[in-house]
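Researcher: Final request for today, and then I'll write up notes for the group meeting. The sequence and the SMILES for magnesium ion follow.
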Amino acid sequence: MPDDVVPPSLMLSLPSLEATEALAARAAALARPGDALLLEGPLGAGKSAFARAFLRAAAGDPALEVPSPSFTLVQAYELPGGTAHHFDLYRLSGPDELVELGWDEARDGIVIVEWPQRLEHLTPPDALCLRLEPGEGDLRQATLTGWGDRLARLRP
Ligand SMILES: Nc1ncnc2c1ncn2[C@@H]1O[C@H](COP(=O)(O)OP(=O)(O)OP(=O)(O)O)[C@@H](O)[C@H]1O
Ligand SMILES: [Mg+2]
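Model: Predicted protein-magnesium ion complex:
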């Protein structure tokens, strides 16, 4: 894509945790094996909240345990549609450690990644990128890019 072409993006206001969870459920309904979801935003933006709601929707289990992978760096899930891996790369030492964590195998299924800046050259080019910006109170401003024709279907 030439430098002066801005990729299509979708901006959504998420006034509550429930709104973020509903967006995550819409993404889960559209996701398929091989997809990558890159979750950006500062500490406490709601990346893990989005990932938890995504995995619960994909599992069809609203009570599914989704611990934060901040210390383990990755958590694996067997879902009806295949495997999913939830990464939190905040403490990643570098791309070599990511390969040791099983990144290549994980890419066969769905990967959800917090702190995706750490992926460096392993960043999937066709990923859905979600950026969450905290606003007043529970408000989050979401900017979504990627996913081609599926992007518009993430609207409420
Ligand atoms: N609109 C919203 N969307 C998402 N989370 C929200 C929203 N409003 C309030 N919250 C709260 O904000 C917090 C977000 O925490 P979460 O652990 O998901 O952040 P995070 O981006 O994963 O942070 P970290 O970088 O530390 O992993 C939760 O306590 C959640 O309930
Ligand atoms: Mg988190």
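Model: The first helix runs from residue 17 to 30. The longest strand covers residues 82-88.
Researcher: Thanks, that's everything.
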